[in-house]
Amino acid sequence: MTVKSLLQTIVPLVDDLARELPEGERYRRLLEAVRALLPCDAAALLRLDGATLVPLAVNGLSHDTLGRRFKVTEHPRLQALLQAPGPLRFPADSPLPDPYDGLIPGVQLEVHDCMGCPVLLGDTPWGVLTLDALDKERFSTVDLGDLQAFASLAAATASVVQRIAGLAQRAETEHLRAESYRALAQDHPAPTLIGQSPAHQRLLADIATVGNSDLTVLVTGETGVGKELVAQALHAASPRAARPLISLNCAALPESLVESELFGHVRGAFSGAVADRRGKFELADGGTLFLDEVGELSLAVQAKLLRVLQGGQLQRLGSDREHQVDVRVIAATNRDLAQEVRAGRYRADFYHRLSVYPLPVPPLRERGHDVLLLAGHFLELNRSRLGLGSLRLDADAQAALLAHPWPGNVRELEHLIARSALKAVQGAAPRARIVSLTAAHLDLASDLAPQLHMQSQPADTAAPVDLRTSLDDHQRQRIATSLQRHSGNWASVARELGLHRANLVRLARRLGLRAS
Fold this sequence. Notes:
Blueprint: H1 3-16, H2 23-37, E1 42-49, E2 52-59, E3 70-71, H3 76-83, E4 88-90, E5 113-121, E6 124-133, H4 144-173, H5 178-184, H6 198-211, E7 217-220, H7 227-236, E8 245-249, H8 255-263, E9 264-265, E10 277-278, H9 280-283, E11 288-292, H10 299-311, E12 313-315, E13 322-324, E14 328-333, H11 337-342, H12 348-354, E15 357-360, H13 370-386, E16 390-393, H14 395-403, H15 409-427, E17 434-437, H16 439-442, H17 448-455, H18 467-485, H19 490-497, H20 501-510
Parallel strand pairs: 7-14, 7-15, 8-11, 11-14, 16-17
Antiparallel strand pairs: 1-2, 1-6, 2-3, 4-5, 5-6, 9-10, 12-13
C-alpha cells in the first residue's frame, strides 16, 4: 500500500471524528476503509466487555455474527490478539481455531489467513480489529504497520464515542450521582439486549428514559419476548442497581400463598408457619421488585397491594405491626390489562398504579433482521456448549428464520436453535470443524404440512409448496389439533401453544379458522 493511498483513505476517517455520526456508522466506515485498502475477505471490530468480545461492526461476515458473544477464554486467537503488543499474523498452519470459520457468506470453508491487532485506549485493551481471508497467502505482502494505522484510528473512534456517551450520561444523571451507584453496581451488569431494528432501538430508548427513575413500570408484550430481561435492564439502569432485584412469578403460586410471598408472615399465621418470614417487598427494600405475570393476581390481592404501592406500608400476614419499605416496582404481563379492567376482572385503581410508565416489548416478527442477530447469539452459546469449532446457518436456514412468524418469540427461537444444533451435530461428519444448520434441521415447516397440502390435490398435479404456505399449513394443523384436544376451549389452546389468547385468535382468523 502506498503512503498516498493510505492517507487518501484515513484522512476522511479522521475528519469523521469531528462530525456528528451514529456510533454504528463510524465503525462501519472504518471497516469499509480497511477492506478497501487491505486485501481481505472479512473484517471485524470487537469491543472487550468483561471476559467477552462483542462485535460492533462486521464487513464480509454473516449478519448473525453481530449477535454472537465471543468468550475470550474459548477463542485462543482472539485471546492472543488482545495480549499482543501490536499487529499479529497467524501462520497458515496454526492449530488455533478461528472464530469466524464458516461465517463468510456463500462458502462453508475455514479461514486460512488471519491477522489482527489489539485496540488500546491508553494502555488499556479496548478490543480487537481482525482481518480474515480464505487464501492462505493473502496477507503475505501486507505491511503490519498499515494495520496498526487502522487500529489506532479505531481507538480514536472509540474514544470519541465514549466521550460523547459520557457527556450525555453526565447531563442526564448528575442529579442522581450516577457515577457512585454505577461503581457500586459493577457486580450487577445489565443483561444483553441484542438487536438493531427500529423497534428494538425504541425499546432501548424507553429503558434509558425510565430506567434512571423510580417510576413504576408496566412491561407488556407477548409470551417469550423477553419481558424479564427488560426488567433486569431497567433495574441495572437505575440508582438501585447495587441493591437487590427480587422477582416473583404471580402465576406460579397458589392463591393461598401469594399474600405470604408478597408481605411475609409471622409464626402461627397459618398452618405450617413455624417462624417469622419476610416477604418479597421486605427482601427488595432499597431495590426493585419484579412482579411477573401480574395479570394473574386476584382482585383481593390487588386491593392489598394498592396500599404498598401508594405509601410503602405493609403488614406481614398474621401481624398488626406495620413495616415501611422503599421499593421500586416493575410489573410484567402478556394480558391486555385495560381490557381486563373494562371486563371487571381487574381493578382500575391498581392498573393505573402499575402503569405509570407503560413499556411495550415488540414481538420478534416486528424486529426484522434482529432474528439473525439473536440466532447468532444462541448459535455461539450452543457452539460452546457442544464443544464445536464453528456453528453456522446456511442461506436457506437464514431465509426460513426470516420468513417464520415467531408465535413464541425469542424463547421459541432460543429453543429452536438448541434442538436444531443437536440435529445438525448428529448428522455431521465425525470431528467436523464447521457444522451448518439447514432449513431441514430447523424444521419450521414440519413434514406433516406439505403432506396435508398435497392430499388436497390429485397426486399427479401436486404443486410445489412455498415456505410461507407450509408454515401456514403447519400452524393451522397445530391449532386445529389442539382445539380438538381441548374441546374448542381457546384459552386452553393458547396456554398449550404459549400464546396470548388475543394473538392466537388473530392468527387463527388469518389462517381461516373460526375463532371466537
